Amino acid sequence: MQNEIMIQLPEKVTYIINTIMEAGYEAYAVGGCIRDSILGRIPDDWDITTSASPYQVKEMFKHTIDTGLKHGTVTVMVDREGFEVTTYRIDGVYEDGRHPKEVMFTASLEEDLKRRDFTINAMAYNNAGGLVDLFGGMQDLKEQVIRCVGSPKERFTEDALRIMRAVRFSAQLGYEIEPETKTALKELAPKLTCISAERIQAELVKLVTSPHPENLRTAYETGITKVILPEFDVCMETEQNNPHHCYSVGEHIIKSMQKIRPDRILRLAMLFHDIGKPETITVDDQGICHFHGHQAVSEEMTLKILKRLKFDNYTIHMVAKLVRYHDYEVEAKEKYVRRAIMRIGEDIFPLLLQVKEADLEAQSMYLREEKKEKLNAVQKVYEEVTARGQCVSLKTLAVTGKDLITEAGMKSGPEIGEVLHRLLDIVIEDPGQNERENLLKLAREIK
C-alpha cells in the first residue's frame, strides 16, 4: 500500500537513492527516519534499503566502508558523512535470540519490511514512489499504538531485545502497546536473559530519560524488570506506611523520575535513590514503617547494579554519590552550605538540590510546604555562595601544594595534603581568610 505523503529527504540521501535507482535497482529510506519524519521529528540518522547487492552498491560510489557485508550493509560516505545502505534481506534462523544465523538477500521490499520489529518502523519512502506502508504503520501512528509486524511471538523470539524496545518506544512516543503485542511481551520477557548487559543498559537509559519514564511500570507489569532489574520489583511490592509517603517505594521512584528533567544522571539517580529501602524496612509499635540507613544501602546496591549493567565510571560515580546524599540535611547558612559543597562536590551539589526537590514532590503532602521552604532557602544560599565566588574546594584555595614547598619551606609528602585540607577548613569557616599571604602565614604556623 502506498500513501500520498511527502517527506523531505536530505539532499545526500536523495543523491544515494537516485544513484542506485539510475543503475536500475530499487532504493528507499526506511525505518525510524521515516517514522520520525512523519511525526515531524528530526531523525538521528537515515537508513537506506535497496534491491542492489552490497557489492553492486560499492561499485556505484567512490567512498564506501564495509560495515557488515555478510548482513548486506555498506556505509556510503558523502562529504565525510556516512549512510548505511542495506540490501533487502530475509533473516535466517535466530539461534541466540538476538542475531540471525544467516541472512538471504531478496529482490522483494515486502520481504524485507516483513522482518522488521514494529509497524511504525516498517515503512519505506522515496521521492519516485512515495510512502510504502504494507503493515498499517500510518494507522498505528494515527492511533498511537506499538504493534509488532506479523506475529509478536515470532518477532520477540527472533530478537529478545525487541521486548524492551516495545516499552521504550511506548515511553518515547507516549503510545499504548497493542494487546496481542503486550501479551507476547509477558510471555517472552524471560528471554531477555540472553541479551547483553550493554544492550539492556542502552534501552533502560532511553526509557528512563523519555517523556514517559512512568512506562517503567509497564516493564514491571510485563515481567521485564524481573529479569533486568529485580531490585525494582521488590520496591514495587514494598509499601511505605509513613506520614511522609503516600505511595509504595516503587511508585514513589516512578513519580520522582517524572518530577525531574530528562537528564541521564538525574533520572538514574531518582531510579536508584530509594532502591535499598526494602532491605532496611522496620515497623514500629504504631505500625509506621521506617527505613533507617537506606541511603548507604541504596548507594551500595546502586554501585552493584550499575556495574552489572556495564555503565561507565563517570555515570557510576555521579549517580552513586547523588543516591548517597539524597537525604543529606543541609542548614541554610553560608558556612554549612560551603561545607556541604566541599563534602559532596562542586559538580554534584547543584544536581543534588534538583534530586531533593524531585524526591519531595513525589512524597505525601505532610509538611511539604515546610520542607519546600527549607530547600528553597538552601538553594538561595547556594546561589549567593556561588555568585560571590567563595572558596569551597582545594581548586579555589588561594595557595597550592607547590606554594607551600617554595614559599612556606615545606617538603613534599603527605603533610602537604594535610596542611592544604586544614587551610581549606579555615577558609570554609571564614571566606575572608582566602588570601595567599595569609594562608602561607597560617601554613607556617600549622607546620
Describe this structure in words.
The chain is an alpha+beta fold and 447 residues long. 51% of the residues lie in helices and 11% in strands. The protein has 23 helices and 14 strands. The protein has helices at residues 11-22, 32-38, 54-60, 109-114, 137-143, 152-158, 161-173, 179-188, 197-208, 216-221, 224-228, 230-236, 249-258, 264-272, 277-280, 294-308, 313-325, 334-344, 349-361, 368-387, 401-406, 414-429, 436-446, and strands spanning 2-3, 27-30, 47-50, 64-68, 73-78, 81-87, 89-91, 103-105, 123-126, 130-133, 145-146, 176-177, 282-283, 289-290. It has an 8-stranded mixed β-sheet. Strands 7-8 form a two-stranded antiparallel sheet. Strand 13 and strand 14 (289-290) form a beta hairpin. The protein is globular, with a radius of gyration of 28 Å.
Mean pLDDT: 94
Number of helices: 23
Which percent range describes the beta-strand content?
5-15%
Low-confidence segments, given as residue ranges, are: none
Number of extended strands? 14
Task: Kindly name the structural category.
Answer: alpha+beta
Distance between the termini: 84 Å
For the sheet with most strands, the description reads: 8 strands, mixed
Approximate helicity band: 40-55%
Large-scale geometry? globular
Estimated radius of gyration: 28 Å
Biggest β-sheet: strands ordered side by side in the sheet: 1-10-9-2-3-6-5-4
Offer a quick outline of the entry.
The chain has helices spanning 11-22, 32-38, 54-60, 109-114, 137-143, 152-158, 161-173, 179-188, 197-208, 216-221, 224-228, 230-236, 249-258, 264-272, 277-280, 294-308, 313-325, 334-344, 349-361, 368-387, 401-406, 414-429, 436-446; strands at 2-3, 27-30, 47-50, 64-68, 73-78, 81-87, 89-91, 103-105, 123-126, 130-133, 145-146, 176-177, 282-283, 289-290. With 447 residues, the protein is an alpha+beta fold.
